[in-house]
Design goal:
It is elongated and about 70 Å long. The longest helix has 16 residues, at about 150-165. Residues about 1-10, about 360-365 and about 370-375 have low confidence and may be disordered. The protein is about 35% helix and about 20% strand. It has 2 domains: about 25-80, DNA polymerase, domain 1 (Orthogonal Bundle), CATH 1.10.150; about 85-375, TIM Barrel (Alpha-Beta Barrel). β1 (about 85-95) and β2 form a beta hairpin. The strands form 2 sheets. The protein has a 10-stranded mixed sheet. Strands 5-6 form a two-stranded antiparallel sheet. By secondary structure, the chain is of the alpha/beta class. Bound molecules: iron/sulfur cluster. Iron/sulfur cluster binds next to α4.
């Protein structure tokens, strides 16, 4: 493809002046919470009490923590449990099995999270940044640019809220317990590295320090920030790495995923295979199927050659077109042929289900429709 514009890595409005989000107990490990509680003149066990409410019982409103004396509750709530996320919109579709929330943060930035209920599990997709600076031209979030990184607690609070939704039993046909978290909402998780790693630690620490999820049930996506991928491999976490490849050749990937101008397909895949070797975890290769752009049979064959024999699984994503966009999903016969060729090359391949389409379920689309930026390209 030569007709697509080559975009810089950051577009749209300049980032706002960073405004530090309020500190919250989910920013701290249990020892940090205990130290802070002691500074406030309260007994250390209050840290555990608050943590049990938040991570164990999924209670986010201090007013409901009635076993705490009122005065202490007020003091502790002001320092450790400020409101981080204010719901702007919440929607359900797929007969109640998919729920999406659009949040306003303390400084007005918008982010979104999605819950997907399945027969055997509940998965939430959370945002790690408000906006995104990676400028993938087919993505609504990428068009608006990066607003700011989310704090650890702003990331974790999305999962805790949605875990509470699951626990309330309203998710049709799914178990009442959140089990899986994917970092595939707004933003490039590895561009907010330290806070994302802390958030994973909080999600996986046993209750009441954290939410008690299995590391193996956490997926971190990246467009291929090679140094951060290598750093992640050193963390001794057994989370799944999802690499958003979207093209097997540098010529097209330079355009579809502009960060490829810095780290080429071969470097990105090398880092992915090192991650797989180090963790023993199969890497998920994400590939948005875009009509007449990256869906040709020869690209399926090239991708097959790159991945054959590797610890990898391909997840094809039918593109969810945004209103006014010139990018469209591949026709089903083209998609089927792409799958056939990959499988013929011995590469495990599935097509992602298209949950949440009725509610602007693709990455960034809900926030974009709220601000009107979805039409702006
Ligand atoms: S596809 Fe992902 S990395 Fe690319 S601009 Fe959108 S949110 Fe950012």
């Amino acid at each position: 493809m030569t007709s697509l514009p080559v975009l810089p890595l950051s577009t749209g409005a300049p980032p706002r002046r960073p405004a530090r989000p309020p500190r919250h107990l989910a920013d701290l490990d249990l020892a940090g919470r205990q130290a802070l509680v002691a500074e406030l003149g309260e007994p250390a066990f209050r840290a555990k009490q608050l943590s049990t409410h938040y991570f164990g019982r999924l209670v986010r409103d201090p007013a409901q923590m009635t076993d705490l004396p009122a005065a202490a509750r007020e003091r502790l709530a002001a320092s450790l449990m400020p409101t981080l996320l204010t719901a702007v919109r919440e929607m359900a579709c797929d007969d109640g099995a998919t729920r999406k929330a659009l949040w306003r943060l303390h400084d007005g930035a918008l982010v979104e999270s999605v819950l997907m209920g399945y027969q055997d599990r509940v998965t939430v997709c959370i945002s790690s940044q408000a906006g995104c600076g990676m400028a993938c031209p087919f993505c609504a979030t990428g068009q608006a640019g990066l607003t700011r990184n989310l704090s650890t607690a702003e990331i974790v609070d999305q999962a805790v809220y949605l875990a509470g939704v699951a626990a309330s039993g309203v998710v049709t046909g799914a178990p009442p317990r959140l089990s899986h978290v994917v970092f595939m909402g707004m933003g490039e998780p590895l561009a907010n590295y330290a806070r994302v790693i802390e958030a994973i630690r909080r999600l996986c620490a046993p209750s009441p320090e954290g939410l008690g999820l299995s590391q193996r049930h956490i997926t971190v996506s990246t467009v291929g920030l090679v140094p951060a991928m290598r750093r992640l491999a050193e963390e001794e976490l057994s989370v799944t790495l999802a690499l958003s490849l979207h093209a097997p050749d540098d010529e097209l990937r330079d355009e579809l995923v502009p960060v490829n101008q810095r780290w080429k397909v071969s470097e990105v895949l090398d880092a992915a295979w090192d991650y797989a070797a180090r963790t023993g975890r199969r890497v998920s290769i994400e590939y948005a199927m875009i009509r007449d752009v990256n869906d040709q049979p020869w690209r399926a064959d090239l991708l097959g050659r790159l991945l054959a024999g590797r610890l990898a699984h391909v997840n094809l994503i039918p593109l969810n077109p945004t209103p006014g966009s010139r990018w469209d999903a591949s026709p089903k016969p083209v998609e089927r042929e792409f799958v056939r060729r990959l499988r013929a090359a011995g590469v495990s391949t599935t097509v992602r289900d298209t949950r949440g389409r009725e509610i602007d379920g693709a990455c960034g689309q809900l926030a974009a429709s709220e601000t009107g930026s979805a039409d702006g390209r």
